[in-house]
Automatic annotation (TrEMBL), chain A:
InterPro entries: DCN-prot, DCN1-like_PONY, PONY_dom, UBA-like_sf. The lineage of its organism: Eukaryota, Fungi, Dikarya, Basidiomycota, Agaricomycotina. SUPFAM superfamilies: UBA-like (SSF46934). Residues 53-267 form the DCUN1 domain. It comes from the Eukaryota. It comes from Suillus placidus. This is Defective in cullin neddylation protein. Pfam families: Cullin_binding, UBA_4. GO terms for biological process: protein neddylation.
Automatic annotation (TrEMBL), chain B:
This is Cullin-1. One of its GO terms (cellular component) is SCF ubiquitin ligase complex. The keyword Coiled coil applies. Keywords: Coiled coil, Isopeptide bond, Ubl conjugation, Ubl conjugation pathway. Belongs to the cullin family. Pathway: Protein modification; protein ubiquitination. Residues 423-651 form the Cullin family profile domain. GO terms for biological process: protein polyubiquitination; SCF-dependent proteasomal ubiquitin-dependent protein catabolic process. It comes from the Eukaryota. Residues 257-284 form a coiled coil. GO terms for molecular function: ubiquitin protein ligase binding. InterPro entries: Cullin, Cullin-like_AB, Cullin_CS, Cullin_homology, Cullin_homology_sf, Cullin_N, Cullin_neddylation_domain, Cullin_repeat-like_dom_sf.
Amino acid sequence: MSKASKDALLSEFCSITGASPKDAKRYLDKHQRRLDAAIDAYYQEGGSKTTVASTSKLNALFEKYKDPTGDEISIDGTIQLCQDLKVDPENVVLLAVAYELKSPRVGEWNKKGWVEGWSRLGCDTVDEMKDTLTRLRAKLGSDSTYFHKVYDHTFGFARTEGQRSLAIDTALAFWDLLLPTGLTGGALKHDLTGEDVDMDGEESSGWTNEHTQWWFQFLAEKGGKGVSKDTWMMLFDFIRSIDSQFLTHDAEAAWPSAIDDFVFWARSVGKVPTPEAT
Amino acid sequence: MSSSTTTTTPANVSHTMPPASADLATTWAFLEEGVDHIMTKLQTGVSYSKYMSLYTVAYNYCTSSRMHNTTTDTVGQGSRTGANLMGSDLYNNLIRYFITHLKLLKDQSDSLQDEALLRYYASEWDRYTTGANYINRLFTYLNRHWVKRERDEGRKGVYPVYTLALVQWKSNFFLHVQSKHTKLAGAILRLIERQRNGETIDQGLVKKVVDSFVSLGLDESDINKASLDVYREHLETPFLDATEKYYEQESEAFLAESSVSDYLKKAEERLKEEEDRVDRYLNTDTRKQLVSKCEHVLIRQHSDLMWESFQSLLDFDKDEDLQRMYALLSRIPEGLEPLRKKFEEHVKKAGLAAVAKLLGEGSEGADSLDPKAYVDALLEVHRKNSETVTRSFRGEAGFVASLDKACREFVNRNSATGSSTTKSPELLAKHADMLLRKNNKMAEEEDLEGALNRVMVLFKYIEDKDVFQTFYATKLSKRLIHGVSASDESEASMISKLKEACGFEYTNKLQRMFTDMSLSKDLTDQFKERMANHEDMDINFSIMVLGTNFWPLSAPNNDFIIPPEILPTYDRFSKYYQTKHSGRKLTWLWNYSKNELRTNYLNQKYILMTSSYQMSVLLQYNKHDTLSLEELIAATAISKDILSQVLTLLVKAKVLINEETDQYDLNPNFKSKKIRVNLNQPIKAEVKAESSEVLKTVDEDRKYVIQATIVRIMKARKTMKNQPLIQEVISQISQRFAPKIPDIKKAIDTLLEKEYIERVDGTRDTFAYVA
C-alpha cells in the first residue's frame, strides 16, 4: 500500500472518528488497514484508549523553539520549527496550525496554546506533527466548516495590533493563501443549500480563481484604506453563495458596501453582464 | 241581550236576524246576505243596527255550542269540539263566499288588457279590501277565539278573516291573472317603459297595483309581519330584468351616436329618475337593487369608455364633465382608481412640461434658472390641478393623494433638476430668500404672506428638506448680517410655518439666529455706553456675536492684519467681552464685516461703504499715494488672489488707479454722483463656492443622521434584519430627506466597524445592538 493511500486512510479515519492520527494509525495497523473494522474497534473500545500526548514532551519542544529572551516562540523559532517540520513558512497549513494553537499573530506562539493545541491534536513529537500537518492541510481544503473557522481566525491573526482593519496588501496576501486552497479542495464550493438551483452547466460553478483575481484588482483600484473585519468575514459567505455572473446579487441585502461596490465595479468594467433595470 | 228574546218570522229569514239557536243554514243565509252587501255595495251604506245584528249573529253562532254543552259533564273537551265545529262552519262558508265573489272578478278581467286591466284590478282591489276590513271586524269573535286557537295549535292555512280575504284574492284572482303571461305585472312594466320613453302615465294607478303586490305577501310564521315575497317574485324581479335590458339597449344606442359628455349627462339623469321612481310607486326595498342594477348597466358596463375619455376631459378642462364622471364612477367599486392613476400621470406630465417649457424659454439652461420663474411654474401646475381636485373631484382623498404623489415627483425630479435631488430645495430656498429681502417687489404685506404660503405648498413636496434647511439658513444668515431682511414679522412668520411643517428641531437653529441678533444689539448698546467716556472713540462700532453652532458661517482661512486705525476698538471690545463672558472664544469674521469710510482727500466728502478687506487696503492710502501689490500684501496679509479681486473692484470703481502692472495709486480726482458710494460687492468666487459648500455640509450631516438613526433603532429593537432595518431608517428619515440605500449600507459598515452593532452569529443578514 502506497504512502499516499495510507495517509488518505488515516485522514479518513480521523475525520470520521475525530481520533488523533496516532490512535488512527494504531487501530488501522491492528486491523490490517480495513477501515470499517478499525472504526468498529475504535468505537467498541469507546475510543477511550487514546494515547495522551505527553505534556512534558511538548513543554520540552516549546523550550527548544522559544525565543531565548522571551516567554514565547517568535519569528526565529517559527522558522526553525518550519524547517524541522519541512514546511514552507508561507504554507497555508500554518494558518490552520495557528488556529489550532491559538496563535494571536504571525510568528507568535505562546506556551499555553502550544501545549493545549498539540495535545488536542494528539501529537508530541515532530514526526507526529508532520503527519498532523498533512491531515490539517487536507481538512482545510475540503471541510467548509473547518475552513471557515481558520478563515475567521486569520483576520485577527493577520491584523496589526491596535488596527481595526487589515491593510490591503496583507489581506491580499492571506486571501492568496486561503482562497485557492478552499476553491481547489471544495471548502469554498458554491453552497446551494436553501437556494433555487436553476443554473446550467459551466455557469453554475460560482466563484473561481478568476473571480479572486477580479477581487484583488478591484481592491487595488478602489480598495481604499483597508479591509474591515465585516468585509473579510462576509466575503466567505459571498464566495459560497454568489453565481459566477453575479446575477443573483442583491444590492439591498446585508452585504458590506465593499462587496456591493465590487459587484458594480465588475459590471462597469464588463467582467460580468449588467442586469437590465427592472 | 234584548235581541235574543225577539222572535223572527221564517219567511223573512234573510232579512231578519236568526235566533241564537238557529242552525248553520239559517245563520249563514243571514250572514251571507250582509257580507255580500258589505263586499259589493258598501257605498249604499250599512245601517248601524244592520251591522250590529250581523255582528251579534256571528257572535251568537260561535258561542251557541257552548250553551248547548253547559249541561254535559265533559265541559272542557265538549265545548272545545263544539266551538271548533261552529267556527270552522262559518270559516268554511266565508271561504266559499270569497271564492264565488272572486270567480266573478276573474271572469270579468279575462277580456281586459294593460291599462284597462290595471284600472279594473285597482278599483276591485279597493272595494275588496275595504269590504274585507269590515268583514274582518264583523267576525272579530271568530278571529279572536276559533282562528286564534286553531293557529295556536299549529294548524296551517287558517287566518284571521282579513288575511283570509287576501289569501283568497291572491290564489283565486291574482295568480289567475298573472298566470296569463304575467298579464298584471306585464301591464305595469309596459306602463313604466312608456314613462321611461317620456310619456305621462297614471302613477297613482301603478302605485295602487304595486301596493297590492306588497299587501299580498304573507309571512306564514307571523301573519302580522309584512312579507315582500309576492312583490319580489311577481314584480321586482321582472322589473329589474326589464330595467337592465332597457338601459343596456338605450346606453348602447345612445353612445353609438352621442359623445361621452352627453352620455354622462344622460346617465346622471337616468339614475336620478330611477331613484325617484322608487319614491313614487315602488317599494323602498327595491331601491338598493334598482340603483345597483342601473349603476352596473349605465356605469360599470361603460366604465372603460369613461376611463378612456377621462384624459381628454382633463386636457380640455371640462370641469362639469369631470365632475359628472367623478360622481358616476364614484358610485361603483374601484371605479375611481383608474381615474386617480390617470390624474396622477396627468399632473406629473403637466409639471414636467412646465419645467421643460421654462428651460426652453431661457437660453441659460438649468444652471442659471431664475428661482422665481421656476417656483412659479411649479406652483401654477399645482394650483390648477388642486382646483380641479376641489371642484371636480370634491376634494376626494384619493385624488388629493394622486395630486400629492405627482407633485412630489415633478417637484423633485424634472428636466431642471436632472439627477440632482438638491436642485429644487436650493431654488425654493433662494426664492424664499428673495421674497424676504428688503428690496423685493412685493409691496403689500399680504402679498408677501401669500407668497410665503405658496413656498410652503412646494416645501411640502420637497424630499430633501435638509437641503432646503441648509440653504435657507445660509440665506437667512446673509439677510441678517447685511441687514437686508424685509421685516422681522415676515421672517418669524416663515419660520413658524417651517416649524409647523417639520417640527421644532428643524427651525431651532434658525430661531437661535434671531436670538443672537437681538442679543448682539443689546451688547452693542451696552458696549457703547461703557465706552462713552473714551475720547478717542470716534469710530462708530457695532458688533454681532453669533454662536458658531447656529450660524452657517466660516472664518476666513487667510491672515488679516487689523489696521491700526481700528485696533484700539478691536482690543477694547475683546477685553470687554472677556470680562462679560469669560472663557468664550471670539473669532472675528472679517470676511463678513463691513465698514464706512469718510474721505477727506477730495473736495467733495464721500462716504465709501466697503468690506473689511477693501477698508484695510484703502486705509493704507492714509499714508501713501501709491503702493505696489507686494506692499499691499505685506500690509494687509490678505492672500494674493483675494487681494487682486479686492483691488480690481476698487479700480473699477475708480477709487484706485492701476496704470502700471501691480501698481495701485489713489485717484485724486475720484468723482461720484452719490455721496454714499457702495464698493462692497460680493466676490465672484464666494458666490460660486456657496452652493457647493452648502451641499458638502448637507452630505456630512446626512452621514451622521443616518448613523444616529440606525443606532437609535437598534438600541430600541436590539436585533433586526437588514431589510426591515433599511426600511425603518428610510421611513424615519424621509421627513428630512430621501436616504439612498448605499448610504445606509455604508453607515451600517461604519457602525459594524465601530462595534455599535454586530452581525448575529450564524446569520448573514441580522444585526444586533452592542450595548
